Amino acid sequence: MLETLLQGLSSSSIYAVLALGFVVIYKGTKVVNLAHGSVMLLGVYVISLLAPRLGFWPGAVIGILVGAAGAVVIQFMTNAVRSKDHLVMTIMTIGINVMIAAELTHEIGDATVFTGDPWGNRSLSIGGSSFPVSRLMALIVGSVLIGVIFAIFRFTQFGVKLRASAVDAETSSLLGISQRSVSIWSWVIGGGLATVGGIFLAAFPANGLDSGSATLAMSAIPAIIIGGMDSAGGAVLGGLIVGCGEAVARRLIPELAPVLGDSFASVVPFILMLAVLLVRPSGLFGSKVVQRV
Amino acid sequence: MMARSLTLQDVSLRFGGISVLDGVSFTVNPGSIHAVIGPNGAGKSSCFNVISGLYRATAGSVHFGDVDLCRLAPHQIAAQGVGRAFQNIALAPHETVLDNLMVARHRLTRAGMISTALALPSARREAAAHRQRVEEIAIFVGLTDVLRAPAGTLSYGWRKKVELARALATEPDILMLDEPVAGMPAGEKMEIAALIRAIRDALGISVVLVEHDMPMVMSLADHITVLDFGRRIADGTPREVMADFHVIQAYLGTTDAPADELADALNQEVADRA
Amino acid sequence: MSDLIWKRSGIALVAVLLLAVPFILENDMLGVAIVCLAYAVAAIGLTVLVGVGGQLSLAHGFFVAVGAYAYTVFGSPKGEHLFGFGLPPLIAAIGAVVVAAFAGLAFSPIARRLGGLYLGMASLALVFIADYVFQRVGALSGGSGGRMVPAFTVGGLQLSGFTKHLWIAGVDFGGMQRLWYLVLIVAVLSAVAALRIVRGRPGQALQLMRDNPAAAAAMGVNIPRAKSGVFVMSSAYAGLAGVLIALQAQTVVPHTFSMTLSLNLLVMIILGGLGSVQGAVVGAVVVNLLPAILDKLGTSGALAFIDPTGVRGMSGGLFSALVFGAAVVLVLIFEPLGLAGLFRRAVRRASITRAG
């Protein structure tokens, strides 16, 4: 029971970090970054190249910066759309994703990408069950990051500007809030968060990432839909629901395995997502989308 | 075609804490031109949206004849013969005027995906018959010369005419016009006003319009309802409404036009009509 | 020469070339050409859904898979561990399209309530769930090894798979050659049907629904029903494409129909121009042809940076992915109407210079 809970919490934190990245970008620019997974893989790949030479922490910092920089480049490209239609920009991220994924597939090839994180495959014993240190770190770092993001939203000027622009971009710009800077910084944060999520995804008990791992980030999408795409709190709650739902499903799998199979656990988030979309499309905490016709 | 009245009874509309319409009632008599006027933000467009079924009223009812419109979906309201021309022109710029008008025949035609894909004779006959009818309507509105032109190449005034023609092409019993002459020069306004009169006189269609051009409204409308802050503050013939103290106050309070200028213009229109 | 004569002779030329394809191309490129046309059918369905109807779907590949597997299951005899119904191929094919259409219908309640972005996200769910189902239900999919696809025979004439030798003009007219004509006919008919739909009453209603739902409702368009309708139509097209793909591949494996396929289909219609049937066909041909051509040139050494094995350079597929990703970005920035838009502009400029 405790083990399931801890497992659920730790994978929740990874989902939450990834989901938060999506949400910050969406709040800042109303674009769903479908290239998030590629940005994640890019950052982790850079870490895997640098960490052996510079050590994990310097490598991680640079990798996160590269992820953020890559995200900003994507922002510039989406911003070039003349009509400023958010749906068009979202579709453009699909094209960008194809490009980055192709290049990374070429670079990485069949190899596996390791970050060389300091937690390795050590485990702690908590309440009688063994728990990977890396997952514990995911939980701690994830929670800290979530706290920091919330603090930024509430207490800094940038956070206020971001929230204002999310509610009403036109009025905000009339009030002097630079949409440009809000957009760029939200992508910076999003890209950085993606890389952080990737670091933990690559860590034990997973065995690194490979060229196809970019799609793993897509698993965070149920979290943002369930929580509401423009709600940071929703992203965290969504991450919790998805992570714990998955852990519970995995726990129950041995009983249901003959019928449902092992990979059912990864489908659970999407089934939950469809259910939420049917009942409450804007998510649990998202602002209501007024559909008039 | 039975002559039907459009009746709003105590219609209220709230969005969250904001009251957009508050107990609005009025009746559009069959075959008349009825104007809904008021300062900006008075709730005129919201009124139209409630009638069309785009907004659901929080209280009150809308009846067309004895049909309760509040229970119907927007397309069902259209099927009742309620036509509407929109303020923001909703034409397809790359399609010809004729094709844009043909969309209006949607509720009167039946060809589905399969019969259209197979080009069944029934689908083709239907399209031809309706194309002919649409051309007649285009002639009535004065669009013969531009039928084959892409709608996007026309000037603003012409596009407004196409929008009006399209609403007419749905064969409505009542036509809702949302600011039909906004942004037009005087000459074009008169053309549209004449057209609206012709719609009432020759076609017997009731017309409800939202409009800001006071002189035009005064000379055109048979009956006027005045809204302010979501409430009805006056209702009657143009002469009655103009004399109403509340109306003048509402307008003086929100416009920059000097009081006597406004009063003069109104008096002039009364004189013209007399 | 008048415009009409140019147009007619152009069409005639293209028709002759298309009919001659099996005599021009070798088996491997012929296979690629068949795949191009098969995906063109899917792309046509998707461009009507996304471009004309304004409904974003990231799961089109799923409906292609439904068609492919339904045909296989309907047409194969019942196996020890495999589902099968042993129906004649023509019935199996029609049944497959119907099943795909029903799948679209089943998804439409979700499609009705959502729009734009949310619909795209919901369709993502479909992809992942389908992935799981295909992996899990081995009796359906034959596991990762795949299943054999029954050959298409109509009235005793076999049109796909391995056939007896039949020599025509020096070419062994085998299954692939015959399949080309079948696919060509199906593609042409699908395109004509789609053009009629887009230009006719359904298409006009969808366009207005996309651009201004309030106005569409005022014209009497039943919006929820229109959304369902276009989903059913595009799913049927996808299913039909699935049947053709299965016939060409002769074995169906789940990973042909992954998320990548859905994204590729989107790329095809964006490059071709959202909403344009002709654009969808061109987009499908380009996206499926380029990797094959690049690989051929790469193996022959003509292009130094292309290497199908990925050792000395990128494979044709990866390089094409780079090109197409960049092309999508450029199209969305500069010419949202894609190749169709560019073509229209070029034609207009040509007719202006000719008139002047």
Automatic annotation (TrEMBL), chain A:
It is found in: Cell membrane. GO terms for molecular function: transmembrane transporter activity. GO terms for biological process: amino acid transport. GO terms for cellular component: plasma membrane. It is a multi-pass membrane protein. It holds the Pfam family BPD_transp_2. The chain crosses the membrane at residues 6-26, 31-50, 56-74, 86-104, 133-153, 184-204, 216-244, 256-279. Keywords: Amino-acid transport, Cell membrane, Membrane, Transmembrane, Transmembrane helix, Transport. Belongs to the binding-protein-dependent transport system permease family. LivHM subfamily. This is Branched-chain amino acid ABC transporter permease. It comes from Streptomyces brasiliensis.
TrEMBL record, chain C:
It is found in: Cell membrane. It comes from the Bacteria. This is Branched-chain amino acid ABC transporter permease. The keyword Nucleotidyltransferase does not apply. One of its GO terms (cellular component) is plasma membrane. One of its GO terms (molecular function) is branched-chain amino acid transmembrane transporter activity. Pfam families: BPD_transp_2. InterPro entries: ABC_transp_permease (IPR001851), LivM-like (IPR043428). It comes from Streptomyces brasiliensis. It is a multi-pass membrane protein. Keywords: Cell membrane, Membrane, Transmembrane, Transmembrane helix. Its main location: membrane. The keyword Cytoplasm does not apply. The chain crosses the membrane at residues 6-25, 32-52, 58-75, 87-110, 116-134, 179-198, 229-249, 255-274, 281-306, 318-343.
